[in-house]
Design brief:
This protein is mainly α. Helices cover about 55% and strands about 0% of the residues.
């Protein structure tokens, strides 16, 4: 085993034989040092007698740099431990005695590594960089104080603060700079270091400080990042314990409050904390969006809106449910345009005014229904069912749908390609084996209104009716059996993986779900076009034998829209199409025909 003289001489020889200006020599020296320092015996050297300060810094920095490579994984610990044992301390002065605090130290570099990839804690570096009256900063404004807060070194944070360190530690440009450095309070909070968060707040850290160029405070940042709400819970817990005042409705440069952001990101926990701590439920951003507008624009809307109303009801906090944004949109208009029938119910239940409600335009629907879903197989039927269910909910609550409203819905069906075409029709698609097998498993369970004498038989049919049975029924039969709510349930139950027939039967289901709506409006329009010269029964038979796209053209003609184009498109395929389909429908279960034959 080498003695202290031999170790010292070997270390000096290694340094003397290395040309420091040649990078390859430097790396060779670094690699050769490790076996020696691992087995060092005797008196420890003063490394400044062998290496220049810059050379020691380079050795440390390179060790940190290579810690994620397997061949160097063990290098980091021996070198740092050896330096600490030798009593090596960083000296911030240059050769002229001037302080140099603006430099990236190995401590900065080590703090950027994943802690699990480093053999020794970053804490060990503070035994080398132990001047807490000074604060080294890298080129971004990230300081040793930031490092201590990031890793939760409460004793080191305490030492910095005792020696006059500003707990906010803003970068040189202040809160309006373009620095990417997080504040000490943010680092401690997102590291879940409760003692450090408390210490910073107790020593003057400002929780309302603008810490981002976009005007965000810490609470804004928490509500954009905290998907598990732990940081938000910790923050409010400490704020409450310390009775620290907090601007809970602070606005960023776009007028967003923390509540806007928490709801926009769908963070339920953070949203609940904000509401229970008094966040304003009616505050608007630069677009005029209230928190309720934000909720109504999300995909996972129901859970958030129920929570929102529940807390506001508990706190007796009024909600401006008919508030308009800059473009005059209300939350209820968003609910209808986004095809969300359950949300329509919730908004009306909480006071949305139907007497002043304006039905969304085609442009509104275009903005709210995702382009990727409008024409994609597997989404069309669900969207069509939701659209008609939303309209039905409005009408049930007292809204009087007019022809323009109905035409808007019909135009959506046309432009989103939700119409069944004759090209789709295949007399034998019902018997496609994968479809038949899966469709038989899907039970409909419709609500059937029958007399008492028929109740028992109807209940039996209700339990046995499958999707396979349903698609073989005539339109009027299906109307009597299945509601929009039933169709919504069906849409969620269907497996759309069967490539050969899925587009065909999805288009057929779109036709079925909308048949009653189109027929209702087309019959009145057809009577109007004939100047009421034909008997209603006659008109009803004609309308019954047309496909939905034809019925849309009739409504357009009656409304005076594109009459020339419509007259050119008067179809002849519709009657043939449904005549063929009716023949096929006769193969549906006999019991259904007997009970519901129209």
């Amino acid at each position: 085993m080498a003695d202290d003289t031999k170790c010292l001489m070997k270390l000096k020889n290694l340094r003397d034989n290395a040309n420091w200006t040649i990078e390859e020599d430097r790396h060779r020296l670094r690699r050769q040092m490790y076996p020696l320092i691992r087995h060092w015996k005797g008196r420890l050297p003063n490394l400044r007698d062998i290496f220049e300060k810059e050379e020691i810094e380079w050795l440390l920095a390179e060790s940190v740099k290579f810690t994620n490579r397997n061949e160097y994984l063990m290098e980091f610990t021996p070198l740092v431990e050896f330096l600490i044992k030798t009593g090596y301390k960083d000296e911030p002065e240059d050769e002229y005695g001037e302080l140099i605090l603006r430099r990236t130290t190995p401590l900065h570099r080590a703090s950027r590594r994943n802690a699990r990839d480093i053999r020794v804690s970053v804490l060990e570096f503070f035994k080398i960089y132990d001047r807490f009256d000074l604060n080294y900063s890298d080129e971004y404004g990230f300081t040793h104080f930031h490092v201590a807060c990031k890793f939760g070194y409460v004793e080191i944070v305490q030492k910095f603060l005792e020696l006059g360190q500003d707990p906010n530690c803003l970068p040189s440009g202040g809160s309006n700079s373009s620095s990417v450095v997080d504040s000490p309070l943010q680092l401690a909070l997102f590291g879940h270091h409760e003692p450090v968060v408390r210490l910073l707040l107790q020593n003057g850290a400002d929780p309302d400080l603008v810490i981002k160029k976009d005007g965000s405070t810490l609470l804004h940042v928490v509500c954009k990042k905290d998907d598990d709400s732990y940081s938000a819970k910790l923050f409010f817990k400490i704020i409450d314990d310390l009775e620290q005042p907090l601007q809970i409705d602070a606005r960023d440069s776009k007028g967003n409050t923390p509540l806007h952001l928490a709801l926009d990101y769908g963070f339920r926990g953070a949203s609940e904390l904000l509401l229970r701590h008094g966040a304003d439920s009616n505050v608007v951003d630069w677009r005029g969006y209230t928190p309720l507008h934000i909720i109504c624009m999300r995909d996972d809307v129901l859970g958030l809106v129920e929570l929102f109303f529940k807390i506001n009801d508990e706190k007796n906090q009024p909600v401006l449910i008919d508030a308009e944004d800059r473009w005059g949109w209300t939350p209820l208009q968003f609910a209808v345009a986004r095809l969300l029938p359950r949300l329509v119910d919730l908004l009306v239940d909480h006071g949305a005014d139907l007497s002043t409600f304006v039905f969304p335009s085609k442009e509104h629907f275009d903005r709210c229904v995702k382009v990727s879903q409008r024409e994609e197989v597997g989404y069309k039927f669900g969207l069509a069912s939701r659209a008609l269910a939303a309209v039905e909910r409005l009408e049930r609550r007292g809204y009087e749908l007019n022809r323009n409203d109905a035409l808007t819905i019909m135009t959506i069906f046309a432009e989103y390609r939700w119409f069944e075409k004759s090209a789709y029709f295949d007399e034998f698609w019902y018997d496609d084996e994968p479809f038949a097998r899966e469709a038989t498993k899907i039970k409909i369970f419709p609500k059937i209104e029958k007399s008492k004498s028929e109740a028992k038989e109807a209940a039996t049919i209700k339990q046995n009716l499958s999707l396979y049975d349903l698609v073989q029924l005539r339109p009027k039969q299906a109307e009597k059996l299945v509601t929009y709510t039933d169709y919504l349930r069906i849409a969620k139950s269907i497996d759309w993986r069967y490539e050969r027939t899925k587009e065909t039967y999805e288009m057929h289901l779109c036709e079925m779900v909308s048949r009653g709506f189109f027929r209702r409006w087309a019959l009145d329009s057809f009577l109007e076009l004939t100047l009421y010269r034909l008997p209603i029964l006659c008109c009803d038979i004609i309308v019954e034998n047309l496909v939905n796209e034809d019925l849309w053209h009739i409504c357009l003609a009656a409304a005076g829209r594109n009459q020339e184009d419509v007259s050119k498109k008067v179809p002849t395929i519709g009657i043939e199409f449904f005549t063929r389909r009716h023949k096929r429908a006769k193969k549906a279960p006999k019991s259904l025909h007997e009970l519901y034959e129209s």
